[in-house]
Write a structure and sequence with these properties.
Length: 152
């Protein structure tokens, strides 16, 4: 019963709506972006080192957003180890594992997205390189929340 309550509370906390990634009209690649229903599924939650584990599809973003403001207000550096997630609080640290090759990277959430249906996280190009995601563009991944951010 306690485990069910903890799971429910966690999902309520991470499901708050947030603003989309910053982009001005007319900028190349900005297009119309709409938030979609999340397709990620919870695997486990515990009180140990890993706070939440999810599996789904990740992609990456780079040149079109490099140097532009992210949703948390910082300037996007495509070579940094950062990521976009629709609901995780800004500053959340997540270990991302490419399930096709078991390579991992730890990223910090500083943006909102992805806005393409069926994807659960957008990695910076730097993070995507670490787990060999560049060639394929997308991959099945495991997300392990290591530390919740404070949203600032």
């Amino acid at each position: 019963m306690i485990r069910i309550l903890c799971c429910t509370a966690t999902f309520l906390l991470i499901s708050c709506a947030s603003t989309p990634r910053f982009a001005e009209r007319g900028e190349k690649g900005s297009g119309e972006r709409r938030s979609t229903v999340q397709t990620e599924r919870p695997i486990q939650q515990n009180s140990g080192k890993i706070l939440l584990t999810l599996e789904g599809i990740a992609s990456y973003y780079a040149n079109d957003f490099h140097g532009k403001q992210t949703s948390d207000g910082e300037i996007f550096d495509m070579n940094a180890l950062t990521a976009a997630h629709r609901t995780f609080p800004f500053g959340t640290k997540v270990r991302v594992t490419n399930l096709e090759n078991n390579k991992t990277v730890i990223v910090r959430v500083n943006d909102r997205g992805p806005f393409k249906e069926g994807r659960m996280m957008d990695l910076s190009m730097g993070a995507a390189k670490e787990i060999d995601l560049i060639r394929t563009g997308t991959a099945r991944v495991r997300l392990e929340v290591l530390e919740w951010g404070n949203g600032q």
